[in-house]
Amino acid sequence: MADSDPIIRLRHVERSYTRGGEILPVLQGLDLEMEAGAFYALMGPSGSGKTTMLNLIGGLDSPDAGEVIVAGEHVDLLRGAELSHWRAEHVGFVFQGFNLLPVLTARENVELPLQLTPLSRSQRRAQAERALTLVGLADRMTHRPAQLSGGQEQRVAIARAIATDPSIILADEPTGDLDRRTAEQILDLMQRLNRELGKTILMVTHDPVAAEFADRVIHLDKGRLGRIDHNHEPRRISAEAAADVG
Questions:
Q1: Does residue 238 register a pLDDT over 80?
Q2: Torsion sign over Cα 129, 132, 134, 137
Q3: Nearest to 222 by CA among 34, 3, 35, 46
Q4: What DSSP character marks residue 113?
Q5: Domains along the chain?
Q6: pLDDT digits 0-9 by tens, 120-153
Q7: Beta 168-172 vs 91-95: how paired, if at all?
Q8: What's the 3-state SS for 11-77?
Q9: What CA–CA distance (Å, rounded) separates 230 from 67?
């Protein structure tokens, strides 16, 4: 169950980009709070600011104005190594395109964010193996991305995201390149990370079926907050489908 204290706060956030000499406003005075331990889906038309909002929360971008407060830290004020270490400790990223390095094994890909931690080499390896086991890939640790299915690649990406035990997982269209059955297996995994490990999850998606797996659905429109829907009975898949990681 989600805590009442927000883990993410956006206060009067503005963000614009310049293209061809023209200023394009993306987020316009956005105010939003998200509770710790909840699973959020973020929806809206293309260009509504979904990925921009995700990047601001994860410290991959900075606002033009306003405050971005995540896990008690003013992320908008962090820079350089301080920001990198904060991100490694608190946030895990999952992307549509997996972003795995093809020359590395699954275990080596998962170890990458652990390079920013004080863990020893053996500790990093053990933690990466635990993360891969958690996502159902204990038998694929030495496989490279080309030897894995799309669903398995995304599971490796999720293992990489949770390897540092972050409190927040930010997922940008994590099922966009997957077929429906595989997508639902990934969504089931994210549900379990939320419910069993208490991870706060914010997932950008265009897919209304994917959004049904979340507790709450945030709607953005032209850089402004629309409604927030509550899913009182989030979608689930069968135990048999969830167990098939092929």
A1: no
A2: negative
A3: 46
A4: G
A5: 6-98+166-243 (3.40.50.300)
A6: 999 999 999 999 999 999 999 999 999 999 999 9
A7: parallel
A8: EEEEEEEEECCEEEEEEEEEEEEEECCCEEEEECCCCCCHHHHHHHHCCCCCCCEEEEEECCEEHHH
A9: 26
